[in-house]
Design goal:
Number of helices: 3
Structural class: alpha+beta
CATH architecture: Roll
Number of strands: 5
Number of domains: 1
Helix content: 10-25%
CATH class: Alpha Beta
CATH topology: Thiol Ester Dehydrase, Chain A
Order of helices and strands: EHHEEEEH
Strand content: 35-45%
Shape: elongated
Radius of gyration: 16 Å
Largest sheet: 5 strands, antiparallel
């Protein structure tokens, strides 16, 4: 599991002053990129090798709102890996009165693709080894 922190800015909120629902997907994307970095990789490295991850499916449960200037923590956990895909669980939390409060829970499946053909590609052994939680 890796942790990534993000602050909520004005641009992240809607007319009601809470984080716009789709912005959690942006935060999750950043956290998955950070997951790769913490495991010695990056999207740039993968692209140079002619491959990249794309989102296949998303399931989101919104539990409580985040508001302007909140500091959010995204916990990214690898749940399952198949021949060409990786399922991540991503939780968004914040501290409230010294307690951790879960705001959003997401299951996001990404598929490795060949950058030229844009078709799914088997995850190479070196990549499986690096992204498997140690």
């Amino acid at each position: 599991m890796t942790k990534y922190t993000v602050q909520v800015f004005y641009e992240d909120t809607d007319a009601g002053g809470i984080v716009y629902h789709a912005n959690y997907l942006k935060f999750a994307e950043r956290a998955r990129g950070d997951f790769l970095k913490q495991n010695g990789l990056s999207n740039q490295i993968l692209l140079k090798q002619g491959m990249g991850f794309v989102v296949k499916s998303v399931s989101i449960q919104y539990k409580a709102p985040a508001v302007l200037e909140d500091i959010l923590t995204l916990e990214t956990t690898l749940q399952k890996m198949t021949a060409a895909s990786v399922l991540f669980n991503q939780k968004v939390t914040k501290q409230v009165d010294g307690q951790t409060k879960e705001l959003v829970n997401m299951d996001i499946c990404v598929v490795l693709i060949d950058a030229k053909t844009m078709l799914p590609k088997k995850i190479p052994p070196f990549l499986k080894e690096q992204i498997t939680v140690k």
